[in-house]
Amino acid sequence: EELQSIVRFASCQGRRVRVVAAAHSWNPVFPEDDAVMIRMSNFLGISANLRGTEQTWTVTFGVGEPVKSIDKWLEKNGACVPTNVVMDHVGYGGLIGMGCHGTGWRIGTISDECVGMKLVDAHGNLREFSLEKDGPEIWRALKLNLGLFGVVYEYTLKCQKLFNVLARDYMAESKDYFGLGSEANLKKLVSTMHSTQIFWMPFNTGLWIKTFEVSTEPVNVPKTKVLFDTFTNWLSMNFGQDIAAEVPNIRDLTPLFTKAVYLDTPRDYKRVETISMAVHWQKFLDVLKIHCFELVFPIDDTLEDFAKVGECVREAQRIVGEYAKRHEYPLNLSLEMRFTEASDAWLAPSAGKTHACFMEIVSSITVEKWTEFSTDLFKAWVRIFPDAKPHWAKECYQIPGIEDFIHDQLGANNREKFLEIRRNLDVDPNDLF
Q1: Residue 265 and residue 283: Cα distance in Å, rounded?
Q2: What is the Cα Rg of the chain in Å?
Q3: What is the DSSP letter of 399?
Q4: Distance between terminal CA atoms of the chain?
Q5: How confident is the model over 242-278, as pLDDT tens digits?
Q6: What is the pTM of this model?
Q7: Strand pairing class (58-62; 46-49)
Q8: Which residues of 62-94 are buried (b: 16+ CB within 10 A; e: fewer)?
Q9: Helix, strand, or coil here: 357?
Q10: Which of 10, 220, 282, 285 is 20 to 30 A off residue 87, Cα-Cα?
Q11: In this structure, is the dihedral angle defined by the CA atoms of residues 335, 378, 298 and 288, taken in order, positive or negative?
């Protein structure tokens, strides 16, 4: 009732409505002066339907529930959501509404796991939608709607039986996966694993690779090890944040810093964990004050597309080197990538082919030339993948002309299908949202 009253008040005042929960997105998504802001972080509560076959299991929750609460509740009941973001302190409302992603070659975005929602529309009416009731065509608009259908207060996700993975961290040479002619190695790595994450720290010839492979073996990580890793995560995030922030102030120190960070990564560390434990391998990420720009490359399971992924990495390495010649170091943390199955949502940046590569760059907010560097990299990557799109939740408004670019990249058909469904459902005839 409170939500309905707020929406009706905004409508009568001729003001627009914007929704926020934990406010972890880099992009404002829809910046708006004089909008009525609704904070949803107190919309909590979890329930689940774990009856029947595993294919029908679901979990329903308030949009303010953090990921870790739902993971913990599901794991206690022998279930899980098969994909997720690394951060476990963020709220699910934004993750689903903006098409956020984990990593899994045969798994789409978190939005693709969504099968139901409840919201307050622009009329102040309570509305309930589901994949089963409304059908797949309408659901392609609803499951990733950027808040344009109303104030969502409850989501329902598919879930499944909890499973374990063999998690492995190891180092490899960059040339073996991203060098000319190495695309077969990259394709084999990505397509044979449940999930793959790859990191390159500037000025290193090596990579840090994380893989998960489904395992029937029991969890073999002692609780003492979990506690120790949590403590060391806290130390590295808090002290690493301070060091990374100061590095740009000292001329030519960045290469030494990134080489030291790379040397501190695991050499060859294997363990069996639940998928929930493995996905959230990095704690306390909210401590970091960073830039994060990400493009999404639609790809097929072909050598040609994996070769283009390698070319994007080489271009990034080249541009980092060009800036370094001028004693400029706008990238002082890492280049990272994850791979997923494509989404069929009308507004999904990962739509277009059978899979997608999410490639991002991460730097301390204290670096100089970030806008120039990220713009140069954006131009280079778009030349290689003309159908690339920014990730909705990551930083991109520093790129000149990015709004027109996004408009064009979504395509007239996708935009019109989304807007047509929105009109037909009569959720927001006067663009309140």
Answers
A1: 15
A2: 22
A3: S
A4: 18
A5: 888 888 888 899 999 999 999 988 888 999 999 999 9
A6: 0.94
A7: antiparallel
A8: bbbbbbbbbbebbeeeebbbbbbbbbbebbbbb
A9: strand
A10: 220
A11: positive
